[in-house]
Structures are given as C-alpha cells and as structure tokens.
Specification:
This protein has 334 residues and is mainly alpha-helical. It folds into three domains: 48 residues, no CATH class; 72 residues, no CATH class; 117 residues, no CATH class. It has eleven helices and four strands, in the order E-E-H-H-H-H-H-H-H-H-H-E-E-H-H. Helix 6 runs antiparallel to helix 8. It starts with 8 loop residues before the first strand and ends in a 6-residue tail after the last helix. The relative contact order is 0.06.
C-alpha cells in the first residue's frame, strides 16, 4: 500500500465477517500518519508494528477513571453540550465557515511573527534594557509623578477660571474671524488709497519745509506759500472720507477683539499670591517636568516616561473627569 508522505489520509475499511469469526459486518476507521518523507514508501503487503499503533480510549473507560462528582459533572456537560447543539448543525457550519478567513489571517500573522522572530527578540531585549534603566531612576520618577500631581492639582484649583476662559474662547475666535474678514475689505480699499496718496507724499517734504516757520511758532506762514500748501493738502483731504468710514466700521470690532485677548492674557498672567502663583508659574514648572520626562534616551532617540495612577471613582469625583470629557470627548472607559 503506497502512502503519500506529505499528507495524512483517512482510510475507511470494510471488514468482512469471515475475517473475525462471530463478528457482524461493521465499519472500522483507521487514521494513518505517514511520518517524515525520509521514512520512504510502505512496501506492498507490509504490516505496521503494534508498537507504532494506538487505540482510542472508550468513553466508559474514561468515565470509570473519574470520581463520582467529576463523572456526574462531565456527564452533565456532555448532556448540555448535546442539548445546546441539537438542531444547530447549520449554525455551527456557518460559524466554522465564517471562521475560515479569520483562521487564514491568524496563520498569516503567525507566519509573519515567525519570520520576524529576530526583530521581536531584539524588541524584547530593548524593552528589558529600558526597564532596567527606568528602575535605576525610581527617585526621579517619583519626583516627576509628584510634580505632575502638583500640576494637576493646580489646574484643578483654577477650574473656574479655566472653564470661563475656554467658554469665551469660541466667541473670541468668532470675533477674530469676523475681524479678519472685514480687514480683507479694508486692505482692498487701502491699496488704492495708498496709491492715490503717493503724489501727496512726494509733495510733503516741500510742504513741511514751508510750514516749518508756522510749526516753530516764530512767525506766520507767508501768504504767498498758503495756496501751494492748500493745493498739496487737497488730494489727501479727498481721500479722508473713505478711509474714515472704513476705520469707523473696523475699529470697534478690533477694539472688542483686543479686549478679549487682553482678558485672556490677564487670566493667564494673574498671580493670586500665596500657594497659587498663577498659570505662568505652573506652565514654566510643567516645561521643567517635560524636560525631566525627556531626559532618558537610547540609540532610538528620546523616550517619554511617566506614570499616572488614578481610579475611576477619583476621576469622576473631581473636575478632571468633566474636563477630559470636554477637551478629549472621553474619560478612558470610566
């Protein structure tokens, strides 16, 4: 009997009744594992030694080897499994069919991981080196965690001002956007206006030179120089109504925008004194903490380090939870 050494074949043999006396005709199932290709082909008429064969264990032998409690539990498990799968053959078939692509993808992932085992080993080694270096800096990590806690507490203490600033920020941005849109029209008008003022600007040196006596208060402008002065000023005066109208439209919005910016700057720079020196102090301290967090580096570059431990109860019971919900849209599963 020739067996393909690269595949496992399941053979179904019909044993005749005359082969085993007093035995009715029945089906016997034999699983044959060909082994490695180096084993060769089984010769015709050869037999497989009994030492290389195994017989399946009967369910009765399996149940007899268990104690009474385990036997009862196992019997109940088999009964429940039979009850749960009765009439669900199509569903189980659909499930196995649906798992086919997933199994293929898992096999591809396994093959890719096997092909990159050296890279994974190097990654594990680098992680071990990083962990060892981090464990040697436990005091600095403790300082970073404490400083971060202090920073968060300071931010939590300014939640009212911070919330107010954040609430006013959309209005400030909207006003700034409107102002910039209006400035586009202003700049469009300003270009031709400035171009029209060029002749006047060229005449200003001579005009100012002639008006020097008047500005110094030493004497009146000579009457002969008044007509040239008026002629030089008239082109500029004709442009003033348009410029004044545009300025009257844009200046109030600019004033409103700068008022909002001034209020935001005052909020950030406010120093309440005592144990709360204000936002600027904590921002500089936070920059110092960032420098400490980035002080660890290896051949791959700078590495962040830090540890934040917080429970869902404390997160929901403080202002940090609503603040994270407002800024990030999530409370990290809490």
């Amino acid at each position: 009997m020739e067996i393909d050494p690269n595949k496992m074949r399941r053979l179904y043999l019909n044993a005749a009744a005359d082969l085993v006396p007093n035995t009715p005709l029945k089906d016997m199932q034999v699983d044959i594992y060909p082994g490695s290709p180096s084993a060769g082909v089984l010769p015709h008429g050869a037999t497989i030694p009994i030492a290389q064969t195994t017989s399946p264990t009967d369910s009765d032998d399996l149940l007899d080897s268990l104690d009474s409690d385990t036997r009862s539990w196992f019997t109940s498990l088999i009964a429940n499994l039979d009850q749960g799968t009765t009439g669900r053959g199509k569903d189980i078939k659909a499930l196995l069919t649906a798992l086919g692509p997933t199994s293929a993808q898992l096999r591809q992932v396994g093959d890719l991981l096997a092909a990159r085992r050296h890279v994974i080993a190097q990654l594990v080694h680098n992680f071990g080196v990083l962990t060892k270096a981090t464990s040697a800096k436990d005091a600095q990590l403790q300082t970073v965690v404490q400083a971060g806690n202090t920073t968060i507490q300071a931010l939590a203490g300014q939640d009212v001002a911070l919330r107010s600033a954040i609430e006013r920020l959309p209005g400030t941005l909207a006003t700034t956007r409107t102002t910039l849109a209006d400035l586009t029209t202003f700049s469009t008008v300003l270009g031709p206006t400035a171009t029209a003022l060029l002749p006047t600007a060229r005449k200003l040196p001579s005009t100012l030179s002639g008006a020097r006596t008047l500005f110094e208060g030493a004497a009146l402008i000579p009457l002969a120089q008044i007509p040239p002065f008026v002629n030089a000023v008239l082109p500029l005066a004709s442009q003033l109504p348009g410029v004044t109208g545009n300025l009257n439209t844009e200046v109030p919005q600019l004033i409103s925008s700068f008022k909002v910016l001034s209020y935001t700057s005052n909020e950030l720079a406010y120093n309440g004194g005592g144990g709360n020196p204000g936002f600027l102090y904590w921002l500089s301290w936070f920059a110092h903490n960032i420098n400490s967090m980035l002080s660890v580096a290896d051949a791959h570059g700078v590495a962040w380090r830090g540890l934040i431990i917080v429970s869902c109860g404390s997160l929901k019971g403080s202002v940090v939870g609503p603040l994270l919900e407002t800024l990030l849209g999530t409370t990290f599963g809490c």
